[in-house]
Amino acid sequence: MMIESLQSRQTSFFSSPVIYARMTGMFFEKKNRTGPRMGASDFGYLQAGSCYLDAACQTLRPQAVLDTETEYYTRYNACGGRVKYDWGTTVDNKVRAARKALLSYAGKSEKEYCVAFTLNTTYGINLVLHQLAAGSFERIVTSDIEHNSVLLPSMTWAKRNNAPHLVLPRTEDGSLVYVPADIARSIVVVNTMSNIDGRTLQNAAALAHDVHAANGLLIVDGAQGFGHAPEILRQTDFDIACGSGHKMYGPSIGFIIIRRSVLATLTPFFIGGGTVSDVMLDDYSLLGEGDEAHAILEAGLQNWSGILGLGAAVNWLQHTDHAKEQQLSQMLFDGLRKESRVHVLNAQPSSIVSFHTDGIDAHQMAIYLSEQNIMCRSGHFCCHRYLAHQRKLPPLLRISLGLYNTPQHIDRCLSALHTILTTL
């Protein structure tokens, strides 16, 4: 029904002569002007008219990442961990450097943790969660603002293990609300930054302490946090953190940062090439110690160019100032709150802001903005349970910022919204 309704309303915003006159007066010159391209030199490949505001889905990639992947394909396109010729040695050295860069970025030591590469955050959470030894924990705990990547695997774990699944609330500042009994002998799986409104897990360090004191395990979804709030991950004694390169200026690849002592307790079932040291007729010997500990989570041939590109993205992030993003977040938050028909979910500024408007469907609003090459996300953002069922909210519009955005992008988006809202 909603799809049919939306299809029937997908007429161009410019179909009205009045609207056309008002909008073209504001945008036509900007859309066709020449001049500096959007963003700094790191993103100089972008066309001048593009206004990309969907970093929570995936960030754009700086030139250093693109160059690193191109270099792999054109200079040493070999398999890591399998060959002895020079190309392979180069790949091995660069992959080791990428693992070290991720651990350094997360503030974790090689002695205590290791890094495994996967497809994405969703894959990583499933991979570790469903290989935990059966009977080790009494329940699984998540929060009410979790992405489906956390919520669905947690539901599945609870059903497979005939155990309770406890969903706890988060406060306006993002802290998890719990009492000691909630987390006793529990797997706690929570995000460090919400993809709805950017709330961060303010009590992450205390939560980690309390989970461990109660003989539990802490898994954090760092998909948003690694790119926008890494300090929380650095301050948190997590057992497992899962992330996605495509949300932190890198390629479409995932990773797991896992405590070595936890890795040793897994019961591996997703195995194959690259995970074993020997295979007999009816048995095999798994890799999984020392420098090869990560191997049991890396079955099959890896995305070597993606791993190297992620390493380049982490190095780029290490030398990037996030202060500008905070300033743009405040500018966006203040501007949205001035619109009487706009209802912002955020309690405070963030690089991720979601809202709905009186009288205009969010999907239709996204189409209107798209006509001006302003790219935002509309919907429930893979958080159906919380947004559609718990909060009973309509589809939302989400604006999410990256390090390539400028004050001009915020002005342009806010001006477009204002004109649409005062015209329709």
Offer a concise description of the structure:
The protein has 424 residues and is an alpha/beta fold. The chain contains 16 helices and 15 strands. It has helices spanning 2-9, 17-32, 63-75, 86-106, 121-129, 148-160, 180-183, 204-213, 225-228, 230-234, 260-263, 304-318, 323-337, 362-370, 384-390, 407-423; strands at residues 51-52, 113-118, 139-143, 165-168, 186-191, 217-221, 240-244, 254-259, 276-279, 284-286, 342-344, 352-357, 374-375, 377-379, 396-400.
Mean pLDDT: 91
Query: Tell me about the biggest sheet?
Result: 7 strands, mixed
Q: Which ranges are low-confidence, i.e. pLDDT below 50, for 5 or more consecutive residues?
A: 1-11, 20-39
What share of residues is helical? 40-55%
β-strand percent reads: 15-25%
Strand arrangement within the widest β-sheet reads 2-8-7-6-5-3-4
Number of helices: 16
End-to-end span in angstroms?
A: 23 Å
Overall SS class: alpha/beta
Shape: globular
